[in-house]
């Protein structure tokens, strides 16, 4: 009996060691800091891979996205504010893609906190989201980002040497896509 | 010695349980308005119905006015009943807004959704108002308190209901029951899979 208990205990301790890093962040990354270290699966959709400048298979980290600035929205399909904000975020994407000086330089992604792939796809379809969305079913990325309320926006400037800095980190909807984009351009020095 | 190991084990299990249950997100829509109930016992009632049996009929007042009777859908629509424990609490506040953008899924399965809590109408009016305009009826099982929840066997000992889903076909037969861990949101795709089965 003692041996069984001992084995279970060892497994539990290993489990805890695995869980602890996921619970790390007490607050979201601040401006000037770097993003927490996390990876996501490379999207299966070729359009998404092409947008992010990633090759097929495996996983990637945010600084590996081919861009000067990556804007990350933490959302949930269950969040009424995220639903309301979706057209504004789509507008932001359009403004970037329609501007030859910005297209390819600023990329958008969404992370569905507590959402499965199915739920993320429901959100994507419902609001016609044109940029890649990633599920975070187990809240692991959400925890690393300080268990923020949603929607939460983080923008990171990607430097040519592969380093990066957070240039925007804020809870809640932005006022307008135009003013938000102006702020990002200014903060990133584009 | 056994007692010591047992104690350590219990502490570890509780630690993992509490940490795991902390993983929730909350919409900014409810900022400052949600009462943190902490981590609750996963389930706290005993079902009085089972899959394959007739769904007990009920008539409950709706937030939008009037009353809704379950049997009014007999022969016309499949019904999904979503019991949520209480207004202004975590998880509940981020469950129905998700269903609110999936009307097309319910329509595709010729199903209606009935949201039920044991809260009174004014409370539900204020709470669901924060979610935007809901397409499905929200019903109050406030008085006699939790009578419908009790008939289905999902009334908890503290007077709230379980977080439970019932899928009822057009004949009024219960086809699926999920009395979910109250601390967690049920998966949408599991519900959709069960709705898919109605057409088989």
Can you characterise this structure?
The complex is a heterodimer of chains A (190) and B (200). Chain A has a single domain (27-188), classed as Glutaredoxin, CATH 3.40.30. In chain A, 39% of the residues lie in helices and 20% in strands. Chain A contains 6 helices and 7 strands. Chain A has helices at residues 2-22, 46-52, 80-98, 117-127, 140-144, 177-188, and strands at residues 40-41, 59-60, 69-75, 106-113, 133-136, 152-158, 164-171. In chain A, the strands form 2 sheets. Chain A has a 5-stranded mixed sheet. In chain A, strands 1-2 form a two-stranded antiparallel sheet. The longest helix of chain A has 21 residues, at 2-22. Chain A is globular, with a radius of gyration of 18 Å. Chain A starts with a helix and ends with a helix. The model of chain A is unreliable at 7-22 (pLDDT under 50). With 200 residues, chain B is α/β, with parallel strands linked by helices. Chain B has one domain (28-198): 3-Layer(aba) Sandwich (Glutaredoxin), CATH 3.40.30. Chain B contains 6 helices and 7 strands; from the N terminus they run αβββααβαβαββα. In chain B, the strands form 2 sheets. In chain B, strands 5-4-3-6-7 form a 5-stranded mixed sheet. The longest helix of chain B has 21 residues, at 2-22. Chain A binds chain B through residues 1-2, 5-6, 8-9, 12-13, 15-16, 19, 23, 74, 76-84, 113-114, 116, 118-119, 122-123, 126, 138-139, 142-143, 147-151, 171-173, and chain B through 1-2, 5-6, 8-9, 12-13, 15-16, 19-20, 22-29, 31, 94-95, 97-98, 100-102, 105, 130-132, 185, 187-189, 192.
The string of secondary-structure elements of chain B, in order, is HEEEHHEHEHEEH
Describe the biggest sheet of chain A? Answer: 5 strands, mixed
Query: Structural class of the helix and strand makeup of chain A?
Result: alpha/beta
Query: Architecture of chain A in CATH?
Result: 3-Layer(aba) Sandwich
Helix and strand content put the structural class of chain B at alpha/beta
Count of individual domains of chain B: 1
The CATH homologous superfamily of chain A is called Glutaredoxin
Known CATH architecture of chain B: 3-Layer(aba) Sandwich
> How many angstroms separate the termini of chain B?
56 Å
Count of domains of chain A: 1
CATH class of chain A: Alpha Beta
CATH fold name of chain B: Glutaredoxin
Shape of chain B: globular
The percentage of residues in β strands of chain A lies in 15-25%
Alpha-carbon Rg of chain B, integer:
18 Å
């Amino acid at each position: 009996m003692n041996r069984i208990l001992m084995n279970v205990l060892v497994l539990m301790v290993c489990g805890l060691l695995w869980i602890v890093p996921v619970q790390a962040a007490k607050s979201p990354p601040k401006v000037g800091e770097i993003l927490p270290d996390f990876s996501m699966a490379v999207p299966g959709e070729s359009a998404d891979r092409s947008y992010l400048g990633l090759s097929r298979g495996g996983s990637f980290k945010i600084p590996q996205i081919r861009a000067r600035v990556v804007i990350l929205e933490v959302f949930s399909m269950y969040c009424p504010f995220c639903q309301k904000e979706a057209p504004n975020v789509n507008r932001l994407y359009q403004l970037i893609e329609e501007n030859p000086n910005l297209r390819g330089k600023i990329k958008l992604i969404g992370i569905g906190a507590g959402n499965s792939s199915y739920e993320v796809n429901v959100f994507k379809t419902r609001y016609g989201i044109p940029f890649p969305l990633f599920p975070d079913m187990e809240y692991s990325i959400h925890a690393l980002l300080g268990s923020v309320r949603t929607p939460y926006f983080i923008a990171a400037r990607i430097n040519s040497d592969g380093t990066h800095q957070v240039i925007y980190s804020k809870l809640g909807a932005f006022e307008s896509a135009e003013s938000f984009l102006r702020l990002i351009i200014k903060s990133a020095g584009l | 010695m056994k007692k010591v190991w047992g104690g350590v084990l219990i502490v570890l299990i509780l630690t993992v349980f509490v940490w795991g249950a902390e993983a929730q997100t909350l919409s900014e829509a409810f900022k400052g308005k949600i009462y943190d109930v902490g981590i609750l016992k996963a389930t706290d009632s005993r079902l009085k119905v089972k899959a394959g049996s007739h769904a007990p009929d009920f008539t409950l007042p709706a937030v939008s006015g009037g009353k809704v009777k379950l049997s009014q859908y007999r022969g016309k629509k499949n019904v999904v009943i979503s019991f949520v424990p209480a207004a202004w609490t975590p998880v509940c506040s981020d469950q129905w807004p998700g269903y609110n953008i999936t009307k097309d899924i319910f329509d595709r399965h010729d199903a209606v959704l009935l949201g039920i809590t044991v809260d009174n109408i004014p409370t539900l009016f204020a709470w669901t108002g924060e979610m935007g305009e809901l397409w499905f009826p929200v019903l109050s099982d406030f008085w006699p308190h939790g009578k419908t929840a009790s008939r289905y066997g999902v009334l908890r000992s503290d007077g709230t209901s379980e977080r439970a889903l019932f899928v009822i076909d057009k004949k009024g037969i219960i086809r699926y029951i999920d009395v979910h861990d109250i601390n967690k949101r049920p998966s949408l795709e599991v519900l959709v899979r069960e709705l898919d089965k109605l057409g088989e």
